[in-house]
């Protein structure tokens, strides 16, 4: 498998690992999302000063308003964070380049 294929597989595996906790592996409940973010995105979660960050993230992403995230609803979080990371990466490169 290629590096990108591995990344996609990891993403799917991580989603299902946490989604499976209540027996319904197709969706993440708020509790499962919180666990996933605490374990897999601790750095991002630390930058969120709002203690209800997970709640508002869930609300933002939950398209069909069932208070759960399916894989399709979960992906924009990863995409959004990746875009933010990429910006930081570019910024970081620029900064170190200037020095
Ligand atoms: Ca679940
Ligand atoms: Ca939903």
Automatic annotation (TrEMBL):
Keyword tags: Calcium, Metal-binding
GO CC term (a single one): extracellular space
Residue ranges annotated for the EF-hand domain, each copy included: 49-84
Keyword set includes Mitochondrion: no
Protein name: Protein S100
One function term, GO molecular function aspect: calcium ion binding
Gene3D superfamilies: EF-hand
Family matches, as CDD domains: S-100A10_like
InterPro entries, sorted: EF-hand-dom_pair (IPR011992), EF_Hand_1_Ca_BS (IPR018247), EF_hand_dom (IPR002048), S100/CaBP7/8-like_CS (IPR001751), S100_Ca-bd_sub (IPR013787)
Top-level taxon of origin: Eukaryota
